[in-house]
Amino acid sequence: MRSQKALAFKGTVFVMKADLKTGPVLVLELNELCPPILERMIAADQLPNFKKLRDSSEVFVTHTDDPTLEPWVQWPTFHTGQPESVHGAAELDEGHLIKPARVWDTLAESGVESVVFGSMNADAKRKDRVFLVPDPWSANVTPSDASYEAFHKFISFHVAEHTNPNAKPTSADAMNFMKFMLGHGLSLNTVTTAMSQIAGEKTASGDRKWGRALVLDWMMWDVFAKTWKKRRPQFATFFANSTAFLQHRYWRQMDPDSYQVKPSEEDVRNYGSAIEDSYRHMDRIVGKAFDLVGPTGRIVLATALSQQANTQYEHIGGKFVYRPHSFKDLFQWAGGPQPVSFEPVMTHQAWATFQSEAAAIEAEATLAALQSNGKTIMEWRRTANRIMFWCGLISKTGPGFEVTNAKNGESTSFEELFMLVGQVNNSKHCRDGAFWVQSVDGSAKRHVDKLPLEHAYGLMLDMFSDQTASKVAAE
Question: What is the separation of C-alpha 60 from the centre of its chain, rounded to a whole number of angstroms?
């Protein structure tokens, strides 16, 4: 007789067979894709693979009531089935602090092998059954296989430092990355795409550098696909962020009629197609996913959130952000306790890690002392001995704008300490997201009522219970 294990979930026990015979489940975590754009482009016959997936799935629009609307909060809600008030994640690089079990942890208790690739704020309790490659913003969670560290380090550097024109990876890091890629699935398609991107940047009449984000996706997909084929997981996630990044940057250029401050004709030519091009790019990834899971596998599309036009800053000409030329130089000029390390995260933000919580508390006063006209220009949040910090200015500064260190009275030009990143928040987060669950028999069903985001956890577990278990009432 086959051995069985019981999996408890919200008053139900799933009795799961140890020798699973179901096809694999692949969750495509395509960060912040927007249901209205998906539907519009599907209707225009531009997304054939998304159409194929939608038309064989239960289609939900998820909604979150978490007070903090950030992907590094909503993805843990999706993974744990618990709201922000329970899982507690508030920042990037807090995956190691989350206590509730993720979906892959729960499945591991029933013998399910998983690959978690780039999922935001992820970690794993069952290292023996969950192979993990952390997201690019994670410094406190490491890959399950140490050989993936060269890959993770290189990708993290380019994601975290993409707004820093002075940042260059070391020759050793670049060489280690290339060696890793050559042994872990680098495809001819990705090589030719990268070469085309480089050539296009040199020959195009406008700026095409935004296409680099799509090349990075293909590099990550190649490694994921190689890992999948080697490990043959029963459950896997693949996270991609390029569309979310491009939407924040270029929504204004895609939809100028929604804004009072109009983009220039040149900006529309350069960036107006970037977002829709990224959706077509994601459609090709969905096509690759169909090939990877095969005829017996199933795909889940999840976006956690979506985006919409951000018009709340039009009265000041749009929102602009600034980043220090050097995090280290900024703190040295400010004085006070010096961080032992910096971990850049998003466009203009970084973690500063101090030797002690007392040092971090003292450093808060140092940041408060960086002022203009008697008001601090910095914003920050502290967690124990770490401070997430950024420049709080959101409009363009004029010539001669100065920063004063209120601790010693010293002043310097703002431009000496900070660089303008640009108008990078043209869209804002929306509480709705897409969640499509491919059905066993290929049938389609659209749900009218919105699904609380935390309920997606149970539906993913149900994918395994439907195929491999019988439900018995919990006592």
Answer: 21
Residue 329 lies in a domain: yes
Give the DSSP letter string of 353-413. Answer: E-SSHHHHHHHHHHHHTEEETTEE-EEEEEETTEEEEEE---SPPPTT-EEEETTT--EEE
**Whether residues 357 and 456 fall in one domain:** no
Crossing angle of helices 35-43 and 274-293, in 10° steps, is 80
Q: Residue 111: left (phi > 0), alpha (psi -120 to 50), or beta?
A: left
Q: Under a CB-based contact definition with an 8 Å cutoff, are residues 133 and 117 in contact? A: yes
Q: Label residue 167 by pLDDT band (50, 70, 90).
A: confident
Instruction: Please tell me whether residues 418 and 445 are part of one structural domain.
Output: no
Give 286-323 pLDDT, tens digit per residue. Answer: 999 999 999 999 999 999 999 999 999 999 988 999 99
Residue 315 lies in a domain: no
Which residues are paired to 28 by β-bridges?
A: 238, 301
Render pLDDT for 243-257 as a digit per residue (tens, 0 to 9): 999 999 999 999 999
What are φ and ψ of residue 197, in 5° steps? Answer: -65, -45
User: In terms of C-beta density within 10 A (0-12 exposed, 13-18 middle, 19 or more buried), how is residue 284 classed?
Assistant: middle
Structure tokens at 451: 């699904």
DSSP states along 290-311: HHHH-TT-EEEEE-S-EEEE--
Q: Within its chain, how far is the Cα of 253 from the centroid?
A: 22
Domain extent, residue 277, equals 4-310+429-473
**Pair (30, 9) in one structural domain:** yes
Provide the pLDDT for residue 21: 31
Q: Report how many domains make up the chain.
A: 2
Helix (H, G, I), strand (E, B) or coil at 199: helix
| Same domain, yes or no: 205 and 67 | yes
pTM, two decimals, is: 0.89
- Considering only CA atoms, which of 325, 354, 336 is closest in space to residue 412? 325
Amino acid at 260: Q
Q: Are residues 108 and 8 in the same domain?
A: yes
Length of the chain, in residues:
475
Longest dimension (CA), the chain: 81
**Which residue is associated with the tokens 């975290």?**
160
Q: Which residues pair with 30 in a beta bridge?
A: 240
- Between β-strands 12-17 and 432-438, what pairing exists: parallel, antiparallel or unpaired? unpaired
Rounded CA-CA distance 119/302 in Å is 11
- Is residue 115 in some structural domain? yes
* Cβ neighbours for 161, distance < 8 A, ≥ 6 positions apart: 167, 344
Identify the CATH number of the domain in which residue 258 sits. Answer: 3.40.720.10
How far apart (Å, rounded) are the C-alpha atoms in residues 106 and 459? 13
User: How many CA within 13 A on the CB side of residue 337?
Assistant: 20
- The identity of residue 346, as a single letter, is M
Q: What is the DSSP string of 128-191?
A: TTEEEE--TT-SSS--SSGGGHHHHHHHHHHHHTTT-TT----HHHHHHHHHHHHHTT--HHHH
Neighbours of 239 (CB within 10 A): 26
